[in-house]
Amino acid sequence: MYVRFNAQKVGFLGGCRPFVGLDGCHIKHRYGGQILSATAKDANDNIFPVAMAVVEQENKESWTRFLEIFADDIGRPEELQLVFISDRQKGLIPAIETLFPTVEHRYCVKHIYNNFKVDHKGLELKDALWRCAAATTVREFERCMQYIKDLDEKAYEYLANIAPEQWSRPHFTPRALTDCLVNNLSESFNSMILKSRDKPILAMLEWIRVKLMTRLYTKREGIQKYAGKLYPSIQDKLEKLKEESKSFSAIPAGSFLYEVASQYERHVVDLVKKTCSYRYWDLNGISCKHVITAIYTNIETPETYTQPCYHKETYMEIYKELAPVAPHIYKPPGRPPKQRKKAADKPRSPYKASRMNRPVRCGKCKKEGHNSRGCKARGGVPAPSIRSGSAPQDAPQPPSQQPTQPYNMRSATQPSSSQQGNQARPSHMRAGWFSSSQLEFHTPRETWDTLPRSSQPSPTYRSTGGVRSRGQLAAKRPSKLTLVGGKSKGKK
Description:
Elements: E1 2-3, H1 6-15, E2 19-26, E3 34-41, E4 47-55, H2 60-73, H3 77-80, E5 83-86, H4 92-99, E6 104-107, H5 109-116, H6 123-134, H7 138-151, H8 153-160, H9 184-192, H10 201-224, H11 232-244, E7 249-254, E8 257-261, E9 266-270, E10 275-276, H12 280-284, H13 289-297, H14 312-318, H15 417-422, H16 470-475, E11 481-484, E12 487-490
Parallel strand pairs: 2-5, 5-6
Antiparallel strand pairs: 1-4, 2-3, 3-4, 7-8, 8-9, 9-10, 11-12
């Protein structure tokens, strides 16, 4: 079962970066199952769920089917320049190699280390592995790999068997605009839907829909109150990089080409091509400390060199649509039928007698054309119907042989049962929600926060007229009442 709302597709293609995390999690009810998900990043580095599917188990066939539907629905990953990151789940790697052999596929370094530490333990090897993954240049990566080789030859061979393009930053392509090393996107989504994973499938999907609807609305309302150009988390990163750039100096080496150096390192920044030899700017789209130094030397601001994927306008484009609300289901009045209506050309059971093309025959007078309810055997007056709980009546008799009806001990003012049936009964009032039309029973009231500033009334203050004396206040008080002779009189 593949699930994707229109707001997710519009938001992903409208402003998210081409970086998708793939993962699966277990369903905890008695029948089991798996939830396969695809999660992206928004302009504030928060998760943005794109699509999900409910499958029986996680294998190559289920991942192949999910990725095929994902490509037909969202778009071909080759055309969109997508970059996948995963935990190397069962069946996912062969599925991606079969369907999208040219698409970049990164591995989560945390899960690589979890498999690495089984045979290669020690904090020194752990720190060396993460230094290799977090290096920004190829020279630094090779130096860290040589350090691991000097520590443990088998640990070096284990990491050398994994392609460096799948787990180290120096070999990442800059098209994803992120240098993320772990698959925290999918892990955060699995944690978000944790409370619904023990429910039945339909109840679980409905819980997730409400969660997405609330999340999209909250994000959209929050950005409308923000006045900055970049989103807060991106602006905070930029402010920290500005502080770190104070120890660097930039020397012009050409047209918008600078050599930025400090006491320990030296890099080349090209403001036209928007590249830096440190490669942080290339991978993330955010100016690094070397680029900020060159920008200030060029008398500009670093915010203007930040990629548009981090701007407020892009964030608003992502969350411009909301997830659909629950549809209005019309329930017709009356008891629902238990037997389905069969088609006219469908063959009927030979063991069951059919009433088709058979004349209607009365059970009392044995004549055709009417039934016993509409029989006029009593001089043109329809025979009374026998209701449940009443005594059966005898066959009609001539007037001379009919028994006399006993006197009914009922008050003259109380109407009989026949008179009660002839009286018009009051019709019951139906509530508005029983009709198919939408009920409008309340209009939301505008509050002070929802009103625009132009329409908010200016506060008015009443003058108190100075300090009032005790006599002036007493003059406005109502006169006290005293009881005199059982009557109340005003005190003069």
